[in-house]
């Protein structure tokens, strides 16, 4: 069985940092009565527990991975109690005590807190409404800073809508916008977003044109001049959606929705930059069984990567996604892939 070796060099030695089995360990289809985009997935920072966002079903499902690799649904957050409004992205806080959900329709941020029984509150403990400057922006990617005090959001949808990258500070479970780049200040339509490992930069995927950009944060202000931009044919980046760092922070992964691929890039933590513009590895079909990949997450133990996929949707000229009313719900799915332990390589 072919495997994907993820390598980086130290001196004259090549170390296999991870080996991804390109054949999904599990494919989890959406079992809801109606089709929905599955926009995001995020792992708990200390447990093999992850949450999946079913946008048009207005629900978030938490799954636990068993010791034998099986998946068990342990909780569903749903309306009317959860007050979800086309949820786009859900993210665990670094301590695992909160789940923050960005709603696409009304741009609110819902916070759900973990309870003594290990489950999360069925109703949000707080709901933050967007500031006036963001009321016409649609949230896409969401990322907590490593310290847990800040939240970054990439706002991007169709080309005719406003776009932004925003930095929020969390106070009393609510979020205050403290820095913002908007419209012409950005190189494209923001999609995925993540803090770099030391929390001093943001890495953002952009569509139209397709690129990956890194912005520094100086004095809690997002610098308008990118620290680095990765673009061009050699990058294999094409309508990128999510971006996530591996657990050891030596590389990042990017989902390319119109190429059915996930590309991997070495990351230099000292310079907060991508080490080389070409991907050192690509997860692709036919083995990967990807169909419009979107959200991604690495498990906290480094054993798994989860990837959501939309199925056979279509992209319009302005960047919207459309599908037929008769689309089967199970076309949208989550693929779980196994990553082996690091092994030395000659």
Q: How is the secondary structure organized here?
A:
Layout: E1 4-10, E2 13-20, E3 26-29, E4 38-43, E5 49-54, E6 59-65, E7 71-78, E8 87-92, E9 98-103, E10 109-113, E11 126-128, E12 139-144, E13 150-155, E14 164-171, E15 174-182, E16 189-195, E17 201-207, E18 211-218, E19 221-222, E20 228-230, E21 240-245, E22 251-256, E23 261-268, E24 273-274, E25 281-283, E26 293-298, E27 304-309, E28 314-315, E29 321-322, E30 333-338, E31 343-345
Description:
With 346 residues, this protein is an all-beta fold. It is built from no helices and 31 strands. The chain has strands spanning 4-10, 13-20, 26-29, 38-43, 49-54, 59-65, 71-78, 87-92, 98-103, 109-113, 126-128, 139-144, 150-155, 164-171, 174-182, 189-195, 201-207, 211-218, 221-222, 228-230, 240-245, 251-256, 261-268, 273-274, 281-283, 293-298, 304-309, 314-315, 321-322, 333-338, 343-345. Strands 16, 17, 18, 19 and 20 form a five-stranded antiparallel sheet that branches. Strands 21, 22, 23, 24 and 25 form a five-stranded antiparallel sheet that branches. Strand 8 (87-92) and strand 9 form a beta hairpin. The chain starts with a strand and ends with a strand. Mean pLDDT is 92; it is low at 5-17 and 342-346.
